[in-house]
Amino acid sequence: MSALPVVKKIEGVKPVYLDNQSSTPCDPRVLEAMLPYFTEHFGNPHSESHDYGRLAALGVEEARSEIASLIGALPHEIVFTSGATESNNLALKGAARFARAHPQKGRPRDHILTLATEHKCVLESCRVLAGEGFRVSVLGVEKDGLVSLSRLADALTEDTLIVSVMAAHNEIGVIEPLAEIGALCRSRGALFHSDAAQAFGKIPLDVEALGLDLLSISGHKIYGPKGIGALYVRRRPRVRLLPLFDGGGQERGLRSGTLPAPLCVGLGRAAQIAAAEMGKESARLEALRDRMLAALRRRVAGLSLNGDPQRRLAGNLNLSFPGLPAVALIEAARDVAVSTGSACTSAAIEPSYVLRALGLSEEEARSAIRIGLGRFTTEEEVDFAAEALASAARRLESEKRNAK
Q1: Domain containing residue 321: CATH number
Q2: Which of 12, 123, 208, 397 has the fewest beta carbons closer than 10 A?
Q3: Which tops the pLDDT comparison, 106 or 395?
Q4: Residue 81 falls within a domain, yes or no?
Q5: Long-range pairs of 356-365 with CB within 8 A, sequence gap ≥ 24
């Protein structure tokens, strides 16, 4: 297996990278696949009047097929976007606005249902749609971070247009019961959308078996490039969306603009690698995760795991260090690159809204860090990081005692 790409040193220290839910390093095999599309096959993939364009288009379509294959979809159901944030916006706003512009016979559907722990781009999209007159319900979750299926069923109405539930959580790593949610949505005639940025390429996904109508994908979460993603849009029965912006009508008219062929190819290659290695990689990461958790529990009294301990991504740990602010702990453990939660909200002063939704106190939420193990993480790095974090916690505890 390829070695971890070199990480730029911070003040002379190369930290152990354990923030793979935030972003993954580009797999060297992905980079190798992309390079020719910067220099040799550089044509516009929409210029099919010459070989340069046709070769670029061929690379894009091969990538589309690889992505579709990984989720049990058809290639023409994959729409390339700039990433999961755009995909989520297109799915929710596109479906809602199309339904309003083209009302069906009978009672119009104008109700949108989501969870309090969803990514900010989903919650903010729902907020915008609420401002446009759509009715939005935001359900709480259980203490383990999972949705209550009975509460979800009760919240579904004849007016529910779309339900949006994240497949695997970016902060606490929990994996929602998608098949059961999909069945509920089908029984009520509602569309089912899932933000699968963290799940795609890490756990098996089959859009047919899960009853999914819309699925958001991101490249840089699966060792692909940043700036590329995709949205699965079901064709039968057809899901109709209004585009977010206007242009030349590329991507079935849903996402105008020249496709970045190198990035599309990179996402396709990342999907191909994930399809071949997912099972083995997941087992290895689960062993590393358990190793790190055991090592930290031996060294840190009162450590608590946030989110369901079983239904979670193999490489994710979200841990609260009692009485220690996470920001201070991260600063004290400079040799380890971890985060407090979602990279999209890490600059916020407020404690994690996700952890507060699980019922954690403000102090508990402020003491939580997210550890993301990845494809290039080694046992030696796990052991080193566990000791570094534990040592930092001991130093902070000692400083607290001395300050009293």
Answers
A1: 3.90.1150.10
A2: 12
A3: 395
A4: yes
A5: 357/116, 357/117, 357/140, 357/141, 358/117, 358/141, 358/143, 358/144, 358/145, 358/172, 358/306, 358/307, 359/143, 360/306, 360/320, 363/323, 364/304, 364/320, 364/322, 365/320
**Side chain identity at residue 248, one-letter code:** G
Helix (H, G, I), strand (E, B) or coil at 59: helix
Instruction: List the catalytic residues.
Output: 344
Task: Judge whether 5 lies within some domain.
Answer: no
Q: What letter would DSSP give residue 169?
A: -
pLDDT digits (tens, 9 = 90+) for 314-336: 999 999 999 999 999 999 999 99
Residues 20 and 66 in one domain: no
Same domain assignment for residues 155 and 23: no
Can you read off the two tokens belonging to residue 1?
Answer: 């297996």
Residue 48 pLDDT: 87
* Residue that the structure tokens 């201070």 belong to: 328
User: Would you say residue 172 has pLDDT above 50?
Assistant: yes
Domain, as residue range, for 62: 28-272
In a shared domain, residues 175 and 231: yes
Question: Which residues, other chains included, contact 315 with Cβ-Cβ below 8 Å and sequence gap of 6+?
Answer: 20, 21, 173, 202, 285, 286, 288, 289, 372, 373, 374, 377
Q: Whats the size of the chain, residue-wise?
A: 404
CB atoms within 10 A of CB 149: 14
Closest CA to 193 of 164, 219, 223, 218: 164
pLDDT per position as a tens digit, 20-79: 999 999 999 999 999 999 999 999 999 989 999 999 999 999 999 999 999 999 999 999
Same domain, 390 and 322: yes
Do 68 and 207 belong together in one domain? yes
- Choose one of 230, 245, 272: the last residue of a domain: 272
Predicted pLDDT at 106: 72
pLDDT at site 403: 80
Please tell me whether residues 35 and 151 are part of one structural domain: yes
Do 53 and 172 sit in the same domain of this protein? yes
CA-to-CA distance for 305 and 293, rounded, in angstroms?
9
| In the predicted structure, residue 129 carries a pLDDT above the cut 50 | yes
Tell me how far apart the alpha carbons of residues 326 and 359 are, in angstroms, rounded to a whole number: 18
Please check whether residues 174 and 264 belong to one and the same domain.
yes
Domain of 42, CATH number, reads 3.40.640.10
Instruction: State both tokens at 198.
Output: 């963290």
Q: Which of 200, 216, 186 is nearest to 83 (CA)?
A: 216
Give how many domains the chain has, as a whole number.
Answer: 2
Rg of the Cα atoms in the chain: 22
